[in-house]
Amino acid sequence: MFDDSPSSVKEKMLTNQSSDPNNVANRRAFMKVGLATSGTIAVGAALSAAGLAPLAEAASSGLTRGDAAILRFLAALEILEADLWQQYNELGGVQDSEVPGGSGSAGYTAAIQVLDSDMPQYIHDNTEDEISHFTFLNAYLMAKGAEPVDLKRFRTLKGSQATGAQKDLLRLTNLLQLTVDTSYWTRYRSRTQNPDPPFNNMFPQAVPGLLKGQFPAIPRTDDDLKGFVPGNPPTIPDHLQAIGNTAGFHFAFIEQGGNSLYPALAQRVSSPEVLRILLSIGPTETMHFQTWQDKAGNAPPLTDPTNGLIFPDLNAPPFGGEDFQTNLIMPEPTVFLNAKFPKVSIIRPTETRGAAMGALKALTDDGLFTGQSKEFFTVLSKLARAADAAERPD
Hints:
mainly alpha; 2 domains; two-stranded antiparallel sheet
């Protein structure tokens, strides 16, 4: 299990710094100040003594209030992403020294491998990416003397109790009761519509049933694995395959959010270096989204006998056509800014107004935070509103 606490980030920074033989004195200075300090002033003093502030090349100038708010909100979301991906990796990914925790579930892994045989490796790599994102963002904030993000006190949710999961580990996110919005599917295939102003278009769902209930994307207990028989090919009951299909569409939902959020918030930053950070991390989310959108297209049509959830054949009526075609995984050209301009292939949405609160609402509506405390929502809303309030200087 990864450690998302600021103290862990500081330890990693210290390890990186101490690997340079020229930094022995800095390392000792950092230890002298103390790793246990948690206040912003003490953290800033420790980083300065360790020579870590120059990592940002302009630490003495600090961050604008808006830039710090944007980075903190993104760090919070990356921590949440890492938490959910960790749960996926425990049961269906590759458990190793890079992403430890869990021991895998043969039945669940078989179900997601119906979408692509390389799914365990992709899940592992996506998990590692998200861990690296929040770790870097928190380290950068501390290097600038700004307060990092720590959500550890909100690890209160019980996760999967299926064999292979870390059953006693408390989580930040809930993958057991999801309501997945699959409108991203048709949004990126449309040649005539755009969710951003002045168009403000709405898009049909690829899997309408996923928006009409609460469904698990990982096995809740071993009961969800009943009927699975390993083999070549394995026997995968429709209920278990429905869980795998739900995961496939949820993977893409999560990553299309980051795919839009980074360019949306990049329009509000002040510092060229902070802009570089957002422009460097954001495209990795796009790479994730395109991968998962491709794999979701391989989800087999079926009806879950336990709850009636239908996964349709997206290439056949009443679906079918360009808006649903499963092998269209690159953004179709569409209208942008003004209908008078030629259509262009773009990320959408990228509207900056209210982007952070919009992202938080989408994750909340997804059911990802079902069971979380009122304080959790208060803290996340405060971070989102602060990011949305950031203004670029004239």
